[in-house]
Amino acid sequence: MAVHGHPDAARQVYLGLYALQHRGQESAGIATANGQNLSNIKGMGLVSEIFTEDVLRKLPGDMAIGHTRYSTTGDSALLNAQPIRVESTKGLIAIAHNGNLINLGNIRLRLERAGAYFQTTSDSEIIVQLIAHSKAGSLVDAIADSLSQVEGAFSIVMMTRDRIFAARDPRGFRPLSMGRIRNADGPDTVVFASETCAFDLLRAEYERDVMPGELVMVTQDGVTSRQYATGVPQSSCIFEQVYFARPDSRIYGRWVQESREEMGRQLARESGVLADLVCPVPDSGVTAALGYAAESGLPFRFGLIRNHYVGRTFIEPEQRVRDFGVKLKLNPVRNLLQGKRVILIDDSIIRGTTSRKIVRMVRGAGAKEVHLRISCPPTVSPCFYGVDTPSKRDLIAANKSIEEIRQFIEADSLAYLSLDGMLHACGAPLAPGENGGFCVACYTGKYPTQWIDVDEILPARELRPDQMQLSLAETQ
Ligand SMILES: O=P(O)(O)OC[C@H]1O[C@H](OP(=O)(O)OP(=O)(O)O)[C@H](O)[C@@H]1O
Ligand SMILES: NC(=O)CC[C@H](N)C(=O)O
Ligand code: SF4
Ligand SMILES: [Mg+2]
């Protein structure tokens, strides 16, 4: 999230991060600039826990960037929280990065030999270190130079003492949008966010997406842009439409709600089954279940209630917490389920943790039959582009057939949405074999980037007990 040209930029970014909490719940941070100084406050935990009124007051300036972290490379620790700030001959630069880089090893080694001192173990710092060590004359050229050297997924915002930058990788893996707040008595406030739902709280109008391979710069004189990479085919993450993004966001030019509802409708067309009720697995299964119920004509009922004080379980780094999380989070509504044939709709099965527990829960509450329908194809390959799907060993669909998964989760029937069905629901053209500008590698094993050196990807390690408390890193 980034804001340029607002007297209370920190608070605007805080509100935006609140709306983006679902994208990362491990740590959060806000950096501000006022033309002279750059302040940066980060902490472990949720946005609302870290940024109290007192903390926000320590962040002056009319420019700010912010981040909520879901670790994909490097520990889940305060050290790796973002924004990351690096001092260089080109001045102070702070970065907030969504995505994951896949050519870390070589670059890091080369930079260290050239005298770079890395403060973190996250991939994101590489981008700023490359800028700091670039031979390019101007800062914008140094940024373009850095972005051309890194491979993988990056939607980034950066800030210096007096400028904001926003950029997307050439394939446009992750979303990034630009918006404006119109000010009656002065220039517009320019904002950037990973999802458009962050604009609504700020009353910012969506203007456009930052394009794949584009670098946008915002200064006192306005917005300028350049295309630092061209000719690379787009491969935007389809899992954003399936699970990651919020249904009230518009990403890659399409409302997530529309895609998900259509995935549900298509699922009903492809694998309908006789039943009494359609129940979503909240939250992420709700919109697809609405589509499924509408298409099948079956009643839609909340047979599982979600405790709203528990976060997302899939993006939780610790398996122990994920296991416990499901029961803590979801509870059956017995009087709705008793004696019924139930169709459960969820968006995905990754490790199978959630599905197995839920099917048992629903049957334990008296359901006569439990049918599970999944609004995307089987997840058979890991992601290296910013979604921390586990290695093949832990991906249930990489190791078991659909029938074996059905037996494992103890459902009466199980079906997934087809690949073409998912692509079409997300607005891709109907030509079979065409991905319509989407990455679908976790469903096909065909990666849009060149060979990926898996060893380069440092696993996000488990939290140590001392890292689980709220701690603040403050730098002025
Ligand atoms: O097979 P598994 O490894 O259990 O992971 C899959 C589950 O995790 C996700 O939900 P999650 O609880 O993270 O988030 P939500 O509350 O947004 O639905 C997803 O929607 C599935 O329900
Ligand atoms: N969720 C993300 O975008 C992660 C950003 C970065 N790869 C990190 O691990 O900090
Ligand atoms: S591999 Fe899957 S989760 Fe990763 S970017 Fe591609 S579609 Fe998204
Ligand atoms: Mg879910």
Secondary structure category: alpha+beta
- The number of distinct β-strands equals 24
Outline: globular
Major β-sheet annotation: 8 strands, antiparallel
Under CATH at level 1, the class of the largest domain stands as Alpha Beta
GO molecular function: amidophosphoribosyltransferase activity
Pathway: Purine metabolism; IMP biosynthesis via de novo pathway; N(1)-(5-phospho-D-ribosyl)glycinamide from 5-phospho-alpha-D-ribose 1-diphosphate: step 1/2
Keywords: 4Fe-4S, Glutamine amidotransferase, Glycosyltransferase, Iron, Iron-sulfur, Magnesium, Metal-binding, Purine biosynthesis, Transferase
Enzyme class: transferase
Jot down its keywords:
476 residues; alpha+beta; Glutamine Phosphoribosylpyrophosphate, subunit 1, domain 1; Rossmann fold; 2 domains; 8-stranded antiparallel beta sheet; 6-stranded antiparallel beta sheet; globular; binds 1-O-pyrophosphono-5-O-phosphono-alpha-D-ribofuranose; binds glutamine; binds iron/sulfur cluster; binds magnesium ion; glycosyltransferase; iron; PRTase-like
